[in-house]
């Protein structure tokens, strides 16, 4: 079976989830290329070597700029905190390699459009991790609609509910604009927008209303472990503003 | 037990539903006044006498203007098609009697405000049939919130779904602006707006977006029976535009 | 519309429920005979006159033996505590009148068989209140099976769950063998046995296992009101054994 | 991390499922010993080498008797068709090694008891794959009951429903007594019996009734692939009796 060497940039929650997927895919499916878990990148304080051993990566790196350019690497998977999605993905594109990037791919619409243009210009394959498309129920809904079995779609009601972010949760990077870029709209609603497009086969043409309200405006500063290597450990124990 | 003579204006779907309620209330509850089902009004072609016999009204009438002024009547229940809610309710208020009116009470905000002013000026009791307040689950939600058991309410998600109005349904009065005044916003969403206010104890202060789209733009003209006495029987079989 | 005068023997929970049904049936359906709520029987201490007024019976009686023989009465509805089902039903049959009897119709199989024989010999119509047959879902299941739409029925799983009988509930007549005849098997399982026969169209031919266990073996003695006129008010406050 | 070399005997549906588990356990948990996927056994016609490569076993074997005795192997996992559970498990016990065996561990109660005695005599650790104990909901139920939070358990209702075995399914080994030993009672009900014991902490002391009925008495003979290497390929296309 032909293989492709994968580098993964990032090793947080999504890093674990993607490691699992890269390791399992050839057991349950028969893809045309077998992914080889070549190298994982993490910040030195995240101990990427230990992560690599636990999750089955052959190597660990603390220098993503070099890693994405390495001739050993055939595909780069971007699973960093949001603010690094665009710079890393652009570097992969610049290296002429296919990039699979977590959503949201950028913090601004302009950045996202530039990334699309860069990928087209470089003629590299790109992929955004809208993983719900492969949930069996969603995939089936897509097929049912595509086959015309339920006629014209008139309404879609979509709500992405999560309940983990109550007052007890500290100021993770997801709550800071400089790291996350956006809040629930980019993080969660991106999925339901994509699923709507995927299931209906239609594009959204108008936004008739939107509300964004941050109910918990301040959170406890976390230790470093909770921030994907971004936090200021010294400040732990104080409070900081939620900015998304 | 002290009694009060009720007149009901209208005898369609809501007329049957209210007749049932007026007849059942003293069996399951012990209200301070026992309602007497005195007279029901219907158009002559609706045969209000037969309706009265089936549903337990002592008398039938085809003249609502006189009925609401009759000294026999202590309370008037308005269950006509929407366009008659305001004129009948205003006549009851003018007669100095309490009025219980189906929603939407009027076709325009201006009319509704005038009705409120008229009722205040005449010092008559009024009641709008937001019946979901007495659904046990809704009443319990109201109590739970009022008791502070779930803290501050941050979100309410409310959708009123009905599925009867597909292409097979003819042009009932509910689909014509001149009779209905409004469409699903007045007919169904009125309930969820009221429930939101009732359960949360809060007022809506801003509307951030709204869509209104009529998917089925034309329907078969119905016979008279389907229109609450409003239809043009001769036209049955043709097509007419949906205007709400 | 032709009418039939109904007498109802009993005025407990089922008495209220049946009163409601007798009053509502001609509003929602068009039966060949209109039932007239002629007379309700109750024990003197139950105040059947007040019950009659609340629920719409024209008369009240405290002598059921005479009532079932009265030439005024065309049909008798038996809703007493269980131990009186058989004696009252037999008296109605002896009077040559149709009888509608609550389940279980008797406390023993022998009694039940004698009742069937008596009814056949007297050529009177009988009816047992297996009301779930008219629940829309059950009626639909019956039709679906009868139409052969789901093929051969191989398994039926049926459980009748109720949760009201915890330790806080006093020794109602349902917990005493002399009044109830049987426990949950006669009271609740009778319904699921009937539904199984009704939906499948098959008879039960073998019982492969059965357990009967009374977990709460003793309950507080209730006041008279809780016992359908059967209780010994003086004893209230003590404890008594559960015997079903 | 200390390691233990695992041999797995069998490579059917459970073989794939267990391979997945052995490979994933150290990623999601931190067990005291790290299992090494040393060798998988399969019949020559099952191609255990290909299975080993796909699922991550270091070696493949077609001789289980030697494999279980190999000094390389520290633990044996038995996932064969049912009729081989007992012989393989006994051989592992005889080799003085811990054995993890799929259920049902034997086709008869006598065999099962002998296995328990043999394991005790040899002082080897044993484990039966009642995997539902680790389903989060079941584990939580166990904890809730153990903590006394819901008081005395009076009833357990347990039904194991599967719907795959309709007329279209051929005569897999699960339908033949010589390979399967028992039918749904051993295969599925074993799980609910174990869960009942696990959640309640109580033992079953009496069986009050049981039914066993084979509705589909004959099935098409399958090709070899469907039988875990047990089938008679030449006979494929004919019919055979279901014997469990």
Helix-and-strand structural type of chain A = alpha/beta
Number of helices of chain A: 8
Please tell me the CATH architecture of the largest domain in chain A by its name: 3-Layer(aba) Sandwich
What is the strand tally of chain A? 8
From the structure provided, what is the oligomeric state, counting identical versus distinct chains? Answer: homotetramer
| Integer tally of domains of chain A | 2
CATH class placement of the largest domain in chain A: Alpha Beta
State the CATH superfamily name of the largest domain in chain A: NAD(P)-binding Rossmann-like Domain
CATH topology assignment of the largest domain in chain A: Rossmann fold
Look at the structure and give the mean pLDDT of chain A: 93
* Most extensive chain interface and residues per partner: A-D, 10 and 10 residues
Strand content of chain A: 5-15%
How widely separated are the two ends of chain A?
Answer: 45 Å
Radius of gyration of CA atoms of chain A, rounded to a whole number: 19 Å
Helicity level of chain A: 25-40%
Biggest sheet features of chain A: 6 strands, parallel
Gross morphology of chain A is globular
Please give the order of strands in the largest beta sheet of chain A.
3-2-1-4-5-6
List low-pLDDT spans of chain A.
Answer: none
Structure write-up:
Four copies of one chain form a homotetramer. Chain A is an alpha/beta fold. Helix content of chain A is 35%, strand content 14%. Chain A has helices at 13-28, 48-55, 64-69, 85-94, 109-122, 136-146, 177-180, 184-200; strands at 3-9, 34-41, 59-61, 75-78, 99-101, 126-128, 218-220, 239-241. In chain A, the strands form two sheets. In chain A, strands 3-2-1-4-5-6 form a six-stranded parallel beta sheet, with helices on both faces. The first copy, chain A, has a two-stranded antiparallel sheet with strand order 7-8. In chain A, α4 (85-94) runs parallel beside α5 and α6 (136-146) crosses α8 (184-200). The first copy, chain A, starts with a strand and ends with a strand. Chains in contact: A-B, A-D, B-C, C-D. Chains B and C meet through α1 of B and α1 of C.
